[in-house]
Design brief:
Length: about 325
């Protein structure tokens, strides 16, 4: 989701953005605009070792329709070395110089880390890499998501592509300026495909994108604004977010507060997913986030349909195929 970097101040308001039509989305094309790419180091640490991370893929045999079901399971632990603010002043970007955390960054700076998935997982699910992003101060809307939390970005585009997802930012903010884009890459943040009734395509019903949620190197951010926690209410459970870019979906993510995945009590959340105007077959139709207090592991499970299947099993062997390696199963 939205994050500060060490040089920028966040937007504090959420406003609506006008969605483009499917036709407009297609006009933009899908070619990579390399006119203003940044170094790949800007994407964060290219390792998830600090989180004791692993990912597993299970795929069912092909059915008579030529499709099958998959389940991707991501396991990781909270990195206890990540900083947590000690006071409200630590998260106030108007205070200069800002409060510096133990890792040498302002508390409101982003902490990104990512790894690519296996070729098998990418082929079956369309997932390219997974980024575990921690926000010690949270992010706007104020009073809603301004608590320490994780954004588990599931990217469908590659890291090199993301380095070219750049834009002109609005003055004093890290967000793309909707009124001042002079490159194909910058305009692509505001190119959201829609269905005839104006709803965003390849997103669940009720989802909306807001201008402050278009972030360089990520994409736009859209969620069900009407169902988000009310300001000043305690954010307690995960929220599902979609990341539109250039008429497509660059990522999706479960976003969840640290309080949901820490402490002495097990937690579990799940949600079934449907999509308006779905054209991306592999989008997950189910997501869950669980926390095991005894082991400390956070488990994110996503299920969906794919046309990349295991061979049909005969009746005497109905066991699903599952890989067994530690880092990339599948």
């Amino acid at each position: 989701m939205i994050v500060f970097n060490a040089r920028c101040i966040k937007l504090l308001l959420v406003t609506a953005v006008t969605l483009s039509s499917v036709t407009d989305a297609k006009k933009a094309g899908s070619a990579l605009d390399t006119s203003s790419c940044v170094p790949i180091d800007d994407l964060g640490t290219e390792s998830l070792d600090a989180f004791d991370y692993s990912v597993n893929l299970d795929v069912t045999p092909e059915d008579d329709s030529g499709t099958c079901d998959y389940e991707v399971t991501i396991n990781f632990k909270h990195d206890a070395s990540l900083p947590l603010p000690q006071s409200a002043n630590d998260c106030d970007p108007s205070i200069q110089p800002p409060s510096i955390a133990s890792d040498g960054l302002p508390y409101f700076a982003f902490r990104w880390a990512y790894e690519s998935v296996s070729k098998k997982i990418k082929k079956v699910t369309g997932i390219d890499h997974i980024s575990i992003d921690f926000n010690p101060c949270g992010h706007p809307p104020l009073g809603v998501f301004t608590v320490p939390h994780y954004d588990l970005h599931i990217y469908t585009v590659g890291p090199k592509y993301r380095t070219c997802m750049t834009c002109n930012t609005a003055p004093g903010t890290p967000a793309c300026d909707p009124d001042n884009q002079d490159t194909i890459a910058g305009r692509a943040f505001f190119n959201v495909a829609t269905i005839p009734d104006g709803s965003p395509a390849n997103m669940p019903p009720g989802f909306e994108q807001a201008v402050p949620d278009s972030i360089p190197l990520m994409g736009g951010h859209a969620w069900h604004l009407a169902n988000q926690p009310q300001p000043d209410n305690s954010w307690a459970e995960p929220v599902w977010v979609m990341g539109p870019y250039n008429g497509d979906i660059a990522f999706y993510e479960p976003m969840f507060p640290l309080s949901f995945v820490s402490g002495d009590t097990d937690t579990f959340w799940e949600q079934n997913l449907t999509y308006n105007g779905q054209t991306i077959e592999e989008l997950p139709n189910y997501v869950s986030v669980g926390y095991d207090a005894q082991s400390g592991y956070i488990t994110v499970s996503m299920k969906g349909t794919t046309s990349v299947c295991n061979k049909k099993k005969n009746k005497s062997n109905k066991t699903n195929k599952s890989s067994k390696s530690r880092r990339h199963h599948g």
